[in-house]
Fold:
Amino acid sequence: MEKALIDIKNLSKTFNKVQVIKNLSVRFNAGDRIALIGQNGAGKTTLIRCVLGLYTYEGFLSVLGKNSRTQREEILQEVGFVPQLPPPLKMTVAEIMEFFAIITKTDKEKFVKIANDLKLDVEKHLNKPFLKLSGGMKQKLLVSLALARNPKILLMDEPSANLDPEAREILFKYLKALPEETLMILSSHRVDEIEDLVNRLIEMDLGKIVVDKSL
Structure:
């Protein structure tokens, strides 16, 4: 049996009496490269946030054999995440890199290298607040923070949002070069763009998985 890095059984999540995820069961395994697709409101981002331990939920959800709510800090050591919308961080670029280097025990130069590869001139923007960066710059920095750590699980919500074509191509090269055992989940509206990167397609609709197939 394949090794499940994320194991979900009978997961439900409700907001204001509306059930956004409905009794969902699925396993995401080491080596899976997943395209998570579906219309807005299908439940994709909510599912990712449950995995990250950002929401309470009903049902069973384990990440790397741990409880995503009570052992969140341990899990996040092994998980790289790029959100769809950049968080409103008030720190400067330098402070963010320093912070991530400490909490993830990663050499800061690894972040700098990936950001520079994505054509974000880090040196030039070190003292600039994250909030003042353009959308594309924010995305490049967040991608570098997620990738440089060699995470066991990589979650990306609309990974190419705000990226110019050249940066998108460089990002996809990095994703193709991930270690074989890494679990990668890309939530996207544009399957055609990521189909070369994935080996499994999961489609959600109204809080349920309606398609789950190998590619």
